[in-house]
Amino acid sequence: MMGRGNDKSRRRGAGRPRAGQEPLTRERILDAALGIVDEEGLGALTMRRLAAELGVNPMSIYHHLPGKDAVISGLVELVCSGMRVHYPDGSSWQEQVRAWAEAYRGLVRSHPNLVLEVVSNAAAATEAVLLVNEPLYGALDGSGLPPAEVLRAADSVVDYVHGFALAEGAQPSGHSFDRSELLARLEAGDADGLTATRRVFGALARDEARYDFDRGFDYGLGILLKGIEARIVDAEGFR
Amino acid sequence: MMGRGNDKSRRRGAGRPRAGQEPLTRERILDAALGIVDEEGLGALTMRRLAAELGVNPMSIYHHLPGKDAVISGLVELVCSGMRVHYPDGSSWQEQVRAWAEAYRGLVRSHPNLVLEVVSNAAAATEAVLLVNEPLYGALDGSGLPPAEVLRAADSVVDYVHGFALAEGAQPSGHSFDRSELLARLEAGDADGLTATRRVFGALARDEARYDFDRGFDYGLGILLKGIEARIVDAEGFR
DNA sequence: ACCTGAACACCGTTCAAGT
DNA sequence: ACCTGAACACCGTTCAAGT
Fold first, then answer.
1. Which pLDDT score, from 0 to 100, does residue B211 have?
2. What is the mean pLDDT of residues B224-238?
């Protein structure tokens, strides 16, 4: 739990930083904001609440960041700048793409209340986004694809991870979730026209009703990699 | 432009619907809300603004929908219920998946200001979402994949479309956008450590700098389909 | 330069009162 | 049952004033 700015620590005199008190900085503001978002959700992040957390007047924040939008995109930048991937020596491009995707998924998942912002601000080609994508370009550049296809393939992988992270983030628990409620509803037959849905879910083995996100993520990645491999074979065939 | 509720059309007496005036319904409210969101963005949608649009007191809305959240999820439901796919007779499962993905992308793209909501509410297994996914299950069920894999493959396709729609929706223009700004920044070399990014973008032909969303979407879909095909071959090999 | 207090123009929603 | 008016507890942000 974060300490709320209480009366004792809140400054009273204007413009006079108390001796020994840390000055307000962009970094301190963003750290506090990230704490609020992680613990209580994006809805809890207000300029006033953030100021209280810092023991400061709401308006003081505006001297370091132009507004609330800037706080939020600063948060996205902060989170994205934590991206780290390590490719073991001699790893194949497939292993590297996997490592990248898992690192990126992990990054996004470590701040579930910010998924929507990360995933939708990612299109704005900020410095942070470029740094996130760099290792992915690196991996795919070693696959033998022509550069235009490296970009397309990278975009496809990014889009998939974004979509997956969104679905995963929307789920309350995270690790796995139970589809038996859905199954029961389908068996009750209250849904007209869902014939394929009913057939597919009905044919699931009992132990398959529990959806495992990790395996789902792997599966999609595997499909994408196989598909990219097929493109490489095609490209080589044209030589 | 939508007509604002002006004084002449706004009711004065409480609880007394004027003769000839349409009664307030959930449907009318959602239609008006969708109009506001499509024209002015989600940020313009407030209960007070919505009421003004309908020529009604803000509180009247609460008799038909429990709150603003309900208005927004009602909007998502409304949009999703417009999903229509037609599979030509004799079409392959690949063609069907393509048709589904294009229909879904089109649906989402027709309300760009709602993309974020559609894509993040989609995880909640509402009736509308089931109806959207049904034709996709139908297509993949005809591919020869075992049911558990039909679900995983469907999820992968959905995640990809979501991620793509998000990226596309975040872009201002839509149809295509120019990467030459990014290229120039990379060539200026102000970005350290972006070696692979620089190499890949640098190797692009001049006519490839313009990014075409339609072709990008096709490419990702093609990869996914090829990957799914590979899974089917594997499954058959185990028979 | 940095911080503050008061004020402005908004929000979503509750609640008691109207018809 | 359906609609309203006033009120409550909030918002983000501007602006002039403090030190």
1. 85
2. 87
Let me know if domain B16-80 sits in CATH 3.50.30.10: no
Closest-CA distance of chain B to residue A200, Å: 5
Q: State how far the Cα of A61 lies from the Cα of B127, in Å rounded to an integer.
A: 44
Give the predicted TM-score (pTM) of the model: 0.90
At B67 the pLDDT is 96
Residues of A within 8 A of B219 (CB-CB) are 149, 152-153, 156
| Protein CB footprint (7 Å) on chain D nucleotides | 1-6, 10-19
Please report, as a single letter, which amino acid is at residue B157: V
Residues of chain B positioned with their CB less than 8 A from the CB of A116: 116, 120
- A131 in contact with B, Cβ within 8 Å: yes
* Residue B170 and residue B109 in contact, taking contact as beta carbons nearer than 8 Å: no
CATH of B93-176+211-237, one of 1.10.10.350, 1.10.10.10, 3.20.20.150, 1.10.357.10: 1.10.357.10
Cβ atoms within 10 Å, residue A69: 9
Mean pLDDT value of segment A225-239: 84
Rounded to 5 degrees, φ, ψ at B61 are -60, -35
Rg of chain B over Cα atoms, rounded to whole angstroms, equals 23
Q: Which residue is nearest to nucleotide C18 (CA to C1')?
A: B14
Is there a contact between A163 and B167 if contact means CB atoms under 8 Å apart? no
Mean pLDDT of A216-224: 98
Q: DSSP assignment, residue A215?
A: H
**What pLDDT is recorded for position A223?**
98
Whether chain B has a CB inside 8 Å of the CB on A231: the answer is: yes
Residues 153-212 of B with CB under 8 A from A: 153, 155-156, 158-164, 166-167, 169-171, 182, 191, 193-197, 199-201, 203-205, 208
Q: What is the mean pLDDT of chain A?
A: 86
Domains of chain B, by residue range, sit at 16-80, 93-176+211-237
| CA A156/CA A231 separation, integer angstroms | 13
For the stretch A151-197, pLDDT in tens is: 999 999 999 999 999 999 887 665 667 777 777 777 776 667 899 99
A225: contact with B, CB 8 A cutoff:
yes
Mean pLDDT of B205-209: 78
Contact between B72 and B29 under an 8 Å Cβ cutoff? The reply is no
